[in-house]
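INTERNAL AUDIT FORM
Audit reference: QA-55
Scope: verify that the stored structure record matches its stored sequence.
Auditor: D.O.
Record contents follow.
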Amino acid sequence: MKDGKRKSNPVRRAIFGALGGIRGAFWRKKNPGGLFFFFNHAVVGGADLVHAQIVQAVADKHPWVFFTLPSETNTFADKFPREARIVDIGRKVTGKASKFFQIGKIAALINRHTSATVFCGHSRFFYELAPRLKPHVRCIDLVHALATLEHFSLPAVPRLNARIVITPRVKDDLRAIYLENGLDGALADRIQLIENSVEVPASFAPKPPGPLRVLFVGRGSKEKRVHLIGRLATACKTRGIAVEFTLVGDVDGWLEPAHKPNVKLEGVVTDRARLDAFYDRADILIITSIIEGFPLVVMEAMARGGVPLCTNVGGMPRHVIPGQTGFLVESGAEEKVVTDMADILAGLDRGALGTLAANCHTRAVEYFSATRFRKAYRDLLL
């Protein structure tokens, strides 16, 4: 039965793809700007905010944005510009037949545009769509961090006109993956670095006196390892280290019950002014992840004088320079992560933090410019 089902998949893909193609050929709608974006969703997360910023950079071209995974709460949908046309197909592609139909339909729509550019941010749907797009269609993807999609995307790599990465480490890792999988080395030359950006104030306010304030901002997920922050809060309390921990995001279910009394949970915060107020008060921005690119929250904190305390993953070492703009600990054994971070917090004082905070803001001014980001993506997409 399994073998029969497996053999029927290419036939089913062809049939439903062809039916979708017929439907797409008669789809009268047209995208005058020729820009098509494919993202999983618009939930609360740094990657989703970056996607919205990219679309904002070309809002004047009235791009179309496809969300390709079902989501109960596309909380960040309002971050996308009003000029963009939002097409949520998440619930239309949950079955294989319906997904193949949508691939055929959307490919036919895009292929009708004589000047089209398609941009993807971590959408598996796009990598199945790409082979059906005609050669005149420019295809570009964005890789925030290496997880699983870099291998799923390999068959589509020759079709990509450009790949965007946000850290040099991801660029080097992709080159290695190409080599391991026998891809033409010249394809790695299409990988381009465009770092993310945030709004950077001209100056930052001094942090209030009192105990150290440690802030986490983000979503709860396995790779974020938010439970380690709860353990760290308890360890600091046990050792008599004066630290307050505030967690912003949907993280309640990722904390172990024994440690919840030692942290303050603020839930999801989407109001920009309120979120900035958390950054303005925080001395330390904490990241305990096992996998990252370079989180937007680290950039936002540094821009407001927050000092990163992070696991040494992804692009962290590029901007989090130990003793100058923050602190790094190795990401392996969880208990060692907790111990190492507790030791760092125990050794901090207001004087050292003031110098680090100033260094963080200076680096943010130099590297995290929104103007640079906007220009880079307009040059790429237009």
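Auditor finding: record pair retrieved intact. Residues 1-8 have pLDDT under 50 and may be disordered.
Action required: none
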